[in-house]
């Protein structure tokens, strides 16, 4: 695929990574995360149930021009008055220390669009503080999601979050529902997958066009958009996404010369998504996070990191976190290396305040 340069110039957006402790242990784990984020010059997205949770994590973040975003508890519901009060408590407490708050959509919102738009007005119709982004998570029709973005675009601090894994899997599963019988087995490791793998891979290839089409429409509408970037595949059992772009899905048979399946996007798909996003959405309305959860392994600590854990006898969890951080930073290199080809970075380092998203 040959991609033409994007039509919008300027500095490329910062690509955040998840900043989390993830495994059991003390704050040495957060200091390890801080070290790796500083080494990668990577901005952050936090997970927090309360403003106090967010403030605690903010204290560990290294300085960066791109302000952090905060993903709120998945139970937060824009249609619920108590949840809206919680969102506004984050707004009041954190102010301009963060650029955005992310909340999930819900299935019951599909038939309550006027109520949902009013809720977005209640939390986002203001001129200061972080944006509130409603994330595509419940598998709603994409035209419904775009319509909500259109209705909310006049609220200065409201926007939408395109989780490309959720969008891609929703489209893939819709297509599989029309091409495979309900009894078809599509899980990796199941012998029945070999019988339907052609249909599964054909559907999987449609994830990228569906994401690109949604980005194009949101750009046309002038929506403010945050992205959650990660890969996945419908044959992965359990949670089928939130994977690195640099992996494949092992299977016990050969497909196109390999005993593994390509994921929905891969590096080329990520490049196409970043190109479309930076081409269609203005920098002041665009932000990005690598939301990669699933990466299990161990990576030995280098001498600088070992000093953080001098008081630990068993460093298993430190090495587990170190491995996960290495996967996140590898994907950060992948994303930022592509973005650097689209527009030169402004000089001045990471200490300057970035007032964009």
β-strand percent reads 15-25%
Proportion of residues in helical segments: 40-55%
Spatial sequence of strands, sheet with the most strands? 1-2-3-4-5-6-7-12
- List how many beta strands DSSP finds: 12
Rounded mean pLDDT score: 93
The termini sit apart by 29 Å
- Helix and strand string, N-terminal first? EHEHEHEHEHEHHHEEEEEHEHH
The largest pleated sheet is described as:
8 strands, parallel, barrel
Low-confidence stretches: 1-8, 345-353
Count of helices? 11
Q: Supply Rg.
A: 20 Å
Counting helices, strands and paired strands, the structural category is: alpha/beta
Oligomer: single chain
Principal-axis shape equals globular
Walk me through this protein's architecture.
With 357 residues, the protein is α/β, with parallel strands linked by helices. The chain has 11 helices and 12 strands. It has an 8-stranded parallel beta barrel with strand order 1-2-3-4-5-6-7-12, surrounded by 8 helices. A hairpin with a 2-residue loop joins strand 10 and strand 11. Helix 5 (142-152) packs parallel to helix 8, helix 8 runs parallel beside helix 9 and helix 9 packs across helix 11 (316-342). The chain is globular. The two termini are 29 Å apart. 44% of the residues are buried. Residues 1-8 and 345-353 have low confidence and may be disordered.
